[in-house]
Amino acid sequence: MLIPNYLAITTEQYNQIVTTDPDTAVGLVLEWLEESIGTKNLTDIDNAFIDLSDELTDPTMREAVGGNSLIAQDPPLFLASAEEVQSYSSALESYNTDNLECEDAFFTLADFYAHAATNNKAVAVLYN
To answer: At what angle do helices 48-55 and 59-66 cross, to 10 degrees?
Structure first.
């Protein structure tokens, strides 16, 4: 099963991804993932993303969990601009978590997007 890895990227990195071919984009993100291990710029929620995306019905939050703009198909790579990341962060921050079963995964993702939004970063979501 493929699981999403969430990576906060700079505007420069975002522009590199959108101006290259899919295979190169995946290669760049894989390189940046390795460089970001142990930082706040990288997170994952393992298989909880399936349950979390089922629980969150708002389209903005579903994009935050599963990805937005498809850049590559194999492996799946999605990209969200810094503006979209701001929107995701706001939506997650204002969500009422009462009765949410995947609370830990939700807060992990909310913290990640809050950090990315605060630092005006875009987000790449790579499934592997």
So the answer is: 170
- All structural domains of the chain: 4-127 (3.40.1760.10)
Cα–Cα distance measured from residue 17 to residue 100, given in angstroms and rounded to the nearest whole number: 34
SS3 category, 99: coil
Let me know: does 1 contact 47? Beta carbons within 8 Å: yes
Ranges of H-type helices in the chain = 11-18, 22-36, 48-55, 59-66, 82-94, 103-118
Q: Return the structure tokens found at 103.
A: 């609370």
CB atoms inside a 10 Å sphere around CB 13: 17
Rg (C-alpha) for the chain, rounded Å, is 14
Q: Are the beta carbons of 65 and 123 closer than 8 angstroms?
A: no
Per-residue pLDDT for the chain (128 aa), expressed as one digit of tens each? Answer: 789 999 999 999 999 999 999 999 999 999 999 999 999 999 999 889 889 988 998 899 999 998 889 999 999 999 999 999 999 999 999 999 988 899 999 999 999 999 999 999 999 999 98
